[in-house]
Amino acid sequence: MGAGHGHGGGVATAAGGHRRGLAISFAMVAVFFVVELVVGVVSGSLALISDAGHMAADVVALGAALVATKIATRPDTTGRRTYGSYRAEVFASGLSVLLMLGVSVYVVVEALRRTGDDVEVASAPMLVVGVVGLAINVVSIALLRGGAQESLNVRGAYLEVVADAAGSVGVIAAGLLVAWTGRGWWDTVVALAIGLFVAVRAMGLGRQVLAVLGQHAPDGVDVDLMAADLSAIPGVDDVHDLHAWTLTSGMNVATAHLLLTSDADSHGVLQAAQRTLRAGYGIEHATLQVEARPTPGCEEVTW
């Protein structure tokens, strides 16, 4: 099989089936971002401005997720991307993480800068915008919830929206507290809480992104148990050079060398190994090398 053939692109990804939900969420959030930013500046609310900043991150994250789902299924015409462009979705998730952390840092720094200041905040616009924003976020959460369980790309966008929903709740709470107490510093306190909440969510997603980019074993996959299951196949004497990783959400891959016994049916062993990986570990794409005797040089390779 030549480079660039086979599974080099054009296959639907886990996120591909959720493009409609991403597109609708993107349109709603993009329109509301402009409204919230304008009202935040006019009312002097840091909570609104911080939530608008997070909305801006949502717009970019949702847009990147949409673009990534398109790029991921684009056929490779260069012959160089032998794994296709599926990792584009993971990079989009990484962008979401950076945006969320950037917004969090800005909000926390600005909140600390305002500490001690006598800030006047218009509570009525905060409440109206907070309620509308929460409604938009709830609709977006419903649209993206299913995809978040299947795709890291959609999960990045989903967590952005969830965090922004929390921001909208915070804006409503800040508006009510300012209206009841007449103290504008409640706006700063809530903005700080929003920033910290978003940072925690971003770090959780960031760990998942780094695990994929670092080619860690897929979640829920015990490599030692996998080796034992492959070794238990009749005709297999030893398993070595076993690697398993995630290409993108829903696409786990593996490679292994299977040393056969003298009387083994190599084709039967290969089929049994593929069934084991597919049924037990959700690995549809496995590159397996069967060996009648140890391959020279394998033991010398340290990675």
TrEMBL record:
Name recorded for this polypeptide: Cation transporter
Species annotation: Nocardioides currus
Membrane-topology annotation of the record: Multi-pass membrane protein
SUPFAM superfamilies: Cation efflux protein cytoplasmic domain-like, Cation efflux protein transmembrane domain-like
Claim: Membrane is one of the keywords in the record: yes
GO cellular component terms listed in the entry, alphabetical order: plasma membrane
Principal location class: membrane
Keyword presence, Transport: yes
Family label: Belongs to the cation diffusion facilitator (CDF) transporter (TC 2.A.4) family. SLC30A subfamily.
InterPro entries tied to this protein: Cation_efflux, Cation_efflux_CTD, Cation_efflux_CTD_sf, Cation_efflux_TM, Cation_efflux_TMD_sf, CDF/SLC30A
Cation efflux protein cytoplasmic domain span: 218-291
